[in-house]
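Morning F.,

Quick status update on the modeling queue. The single chain you submitted on Monday has been processed. Sequence for confirmation:
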Amino acid sequence: MYHRIADIPGDRNSLPVEKFIEQLEYLHHNGYQTVTMNDVYMHYTKQKKLPTKSVLLTFDDGYKDNYITALPLLKKYKMSAVVFPISNWIGRENQWEDFHKAATLTMTLDELKSWQKNGMEIASHTVNHPFLSTCKGSQLQAELLESKNYLSKELNTSIDFLCYPYGNFNKETMLIAKNVGYKAAFAIFDQVPLWNINLFALPRIQISSRQSLNEFKLKVSKIHTIFIVMRQLERWIKILRQK
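Structure tokens below.
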């Protein structure tokens, strides 16, 4: 899980381009192959085999630097990726964040279309980027359905997959996502069960600006899940002790 590819001091979600190149080179030279969202879906629903070293690269929010900086590098290393734009913030400044971050632009519709033409994927990231577990009833359905319909119409493509803003969701979110026609939804590692796969709570590995290459190697290895499980257990034990 990536966000920006830019050197922004103090922003953990902005990965300097040098580190992104370093990571792509590692994947490329060590036999990793990028797969699509549908490849992942078919793997879990139809037992379709994936390459031994598979990786799905995702970009949240649809920042313009994904198009300007990341896309040429992805093409250079013959890799694909998916971007999750926020439908109400396409081609606009990132004012939805309100975290005292410097303003930057997101990809326009034309850039999203070009992203597709270059072999990349697009999926939904809601209309306004809210914490979905706080949305109720019609508001929750609108965030999921309207973004799906808008992207499908403007980009002339089927929008079958969803990414939860902030990795935040609950049972109602998963149910409505399924009911409005998504095939699966992506979260992050922190809020998903790791002992079984739920198509509407697929875990992703966050890559931060502070990531060293050795940490990146660990994160794309099969043993990384063991460390995630240990971290979850540690958190649960801490919560139980506080009760």
